[in-house]
């Protein structure tokens, strides 16, 4: 079903006014239908579900707001429920926006902790590709669009991550004498890495972007979980033994969490 776009006139300013306008356009709610609603300062996708207890608001890393609401609620009730969360949503969206400005892969890309200027090229090469010259990353695609450029960059980065980071994990495994079976590269949203009790470690492929020292810390972090599958004091002693400045690395990762939001729809 096509999303239904209610025509809310832009001169409706206050949330109350908007609710009145929305109520007047009488949104056609259907089971399972999705509507795009102009909310108080942001747009959101509305999903109505029978049997749901309360209004849920979700914000994707790409800044898409999705509201799911009980089907029994009226448009006015939903709109005022969303309006009550307005400040929370806007704060979150602003943070995402700031992050996007700091890390816009179409302008600037962090690679092994070093920022490269990004230049998009059109149709120089048949298949598209990435080339580095000095501190400039040339991204070549057939149509030169932002969308294809991001796709080409992502593919290139994932390949680079697989080549380089697996090699580094094996080196560190040799140095620390902590073995592992396999390393998997994942597209995690909220984690840099994880470990399984089965001897495998998973790493977010985006760690190809972070400084090598912090990357090494992450590998050590996951390797140490092969000995201790928890974050106990004994675990941290082990980490500290191999990586004394682990707190600095943790702080870097915390400040730069936004990297995990890059290359998402
Ligand atoms: Zn851990």
UniProtKB/TrEMBL annotation:
PANTHER family assigned to the protein according to its UniProt record, in alphabetical order: UNCHARACTERIZED PROTEIN YGJP (PTHR30399), UTP PYROPHOSPHATASE (PTHR30399:SF1)
Residue intervals of the YgjP-like metallopeptidase domain: 53-255
UniProt organism field: Marispirochaeta aestuarii
Protein's UniProt name: YgjP-like metallopeptidase domain-containing protein
A Pfam family it matches: YgjP-like
Domain of life where this protein originates: Bacteria
